[in-house]
Specification:
alpha/beta, homodimer, about 375 residues, five-stranded mixed beta sheet
Chain lengths: ~375, ~375
């Protein structure tokens, strides 16, 4: 409340929350002891006396965030208000395994802290996104298909020795969703985010929160089958999966068959930007396949807005045209009455933005604070 | 809190909630003034004095609930703890339109109140379920396909003259979901409820609440297309919709083509119960089609449990066999690792149970209570 409303007095906090004065005094003392709140001079008081106002101290500490992709990562240091103080994008293949990757992440974190002249002891929390399903409560990847060596690894436990702070881990699509939800799309409570890159995945916001499902697998739409593609074998062992039919790997394969020199979804995006006719046609076709699956999800979830991100979405309106064509054909009239289908507002910064939001929101939430900020998710 | 924990003192409420003593005193006074809480004698107090304990007064009033289906309705009177005092099932075709149907509902309500010797002034709230999409905030059906004359009608406004109390309206599948969620399936926060009867629809529980989507259309899975059925025309104007391929109307049509004398999904359910080979085979086939759509939803939502209700589900394990066959084939390994697919625990009482829960939870929630219980949803 102090962060969101600006300087307030203890009496105003009591009046606004209904909490007793002694409860307010006790909690404010604890916030001051942690340096999260400081007194900023006196405010006129109703009783004639002047009361001391309290303000949120965004500089009381920093958070570290990492958005780990299949081959690249983005890392950042931010203050407690979520403002980025330093960030860096680096090559970092997730397939190198947890020990090598996390050691590299720690080195980058230390370098970024030096770059903004902060001491490691100032770190209040760490937020990490990884490219695979995660059991959020424990920070463990669960059967992640493109993360060899990471299955079941408690990521917070590996970092806790050096960083005795809350460490939160979620999958990359969920943190992108969090980023677009809080920063890009005005906290619309019925939002579906879809990432279209090498893989295809979704993040679902319901009741104003990321919906993770029973085991953290919610949003895993890449393996929903697309009709008429039983001949396309997916890495998961099934056939006709959306990701295998319409994702970046599928586009690379199809374009190579046509003689194009492409290695990954970024190359495909470059071809589309250059108006290569084959690439444009194939991306539009991918859009239609995505539209088939999204039409079903629109009926089931009735979102107000679908935000499409990932490098293939960022590259081309053709993808959106294909998606809209099928969604408006195949979803119910009611579900599409006010539906918006739009591109992400944050581009390839959605993930790191969301990782920062995830950890700052967590360390400032009452439950964590009551435990004295020493709570480590694990 | 008083309802859920039993007799407590004002001091215990203050200690448990952190609210100031004057806030607690003020709110308790208001609860006593509304007769929702009464003093039940003295409890030993820490200070040597004896403090008065407060208890929830479930008999302080009653709620009315109605579960309106296409042709039948179930109505009930319950106390504020949700215990049913009287209920009745009646024939009541929704197609008779809002004025006739609601007049009949009011007559039944008055008769039920007489049956349990309660005065209409004791009514604290009304909960109603209807067989179509509803804008929950206003209680208006929106383009409901089988409710001629109801489109855009503010149901609470039509009842408010006689009943100046909160009146909540939701669609029938959502109230069934609420019933199974709160009474049948132990409040599992990741629950998907599917109704299989004349129509097919779903209710989605996320973050422990019914998820309604942007316009109240969430869960409308009956119009998700099933592959390979482009020749089946649905009432919605599209082809191959799940409901048109696998719902009760489709089964009636197929069984009639085979010479069976069936009029509605209840007749089909009776044939299945009697082990009619055609009916059993066709219901299993319907299960497979349902499984195709549910497999996609399992990937997208990762529910912990899918509860299947409605008269076709209540009739036969064959439907479940067909559903499980396809869901376990087509959903990801992670999403089905601990997935349970089970029948409803409440049968055809799920809807009325959920309508009672909806209205009692609402009238006891702080926001409504602060407004003095005179708040009418509209």
């Amino acid at each position: 409340m102090i962060r969101d409303t600006g300087p307030v007095t203890r009496a105003e906090i009591a009046a606004h929350t209904g909490l007793g004065r002694s409860t307010v005094a006790h909690r404010v003392d604890a916030l001051i002891a942690h340096n999260l709140v400081h007194e900023v001079g006196e405010q006129p008081s109703t009783g004639g006396r002047r009361a001391t106002a309290l303000a949120f101290n965004a500089a009381a500490g920093v958070v570290l965030a990492a958005d780990l992709g299949a081959t690249h990562a983005r890392l950042a240091v931010a203050d407690l208000a979520g403002r980025r103080l330093a960030d860096r994008a680096v090559e970092l293949p997730i397939a190198a395994g947890p020990h090598k990757v996390l050691a590299a992440v720690e080195r980058k974190f230390l370098a970024l802290l030096r770059a903004c002249s902060r001491d490691p002891t100032a770190v209040r929390g760490i937020g990490i996104g990884v490219p695979g399903p995660v059991e959020f409560a424990t920070g463990r990847p669960i059967s992640p298909p493109i993360m060899p060596g990471w299955d079941g690894v408690q990521i917070p436990a590996l970092l806790r020795a050096r960083w005795p702070v809350p460490i939160l881990v979620d999958n990359d699509v969920n943190i992108m969703t969090m980023g677009e939800y809080t920063s890009g799309w005005g906290r619309n409570e019925n939002l579906l985010f879809v990432k279209v890159a090498t893989g295809v995945g979704a993040g679902i916001v319901t009741q104003g929160k990321i919906y993770r499902g029973a085991l953290g697998a919610a949003g895993d739409i890449g393996h929903i089958p697309v009709a008429g593609h039983d001949d396309v074998v997916c890495e998961c062992g099934n056939t006709g999966c959306l990701e295998a039919v319409a994702g970046g790997r599928a586009l690379v394969r199809k374009l190579r068959d046509l003689g194009a020199e492409v290695d990954d979804s970024r190359d495909v995006a470059d071809l589309v930007r250059g108006h290569d006719p084959d690439a444009v046609r194939l991306v539009r076709e991918s859009g239609r396949h995505l539209g088939e699956v999204l039409a079903s999800l629109v009926n089931a979830l009735n979102p107000a807005v679908i935000v499409i991100g990932g490098d293939l979405a960022d590259a081309s309106e053709q993808l959106f045209a294909g998606i809209r064509e099928i969604v408006y054909l195949r979803s119910t009239a009611l579900a599409t009455r006010h539906l918006e289908i739009v591109g992400g507002a944050l581009g390839d910064h959605a993930g790191i933005t969301g990782a920062i939001v995830m950890v700052t929101e967590h360390i400032l939430s009452p439950g964590v604070f009551d435990a004295g900020l020493a709570h480590v998710i694990c």
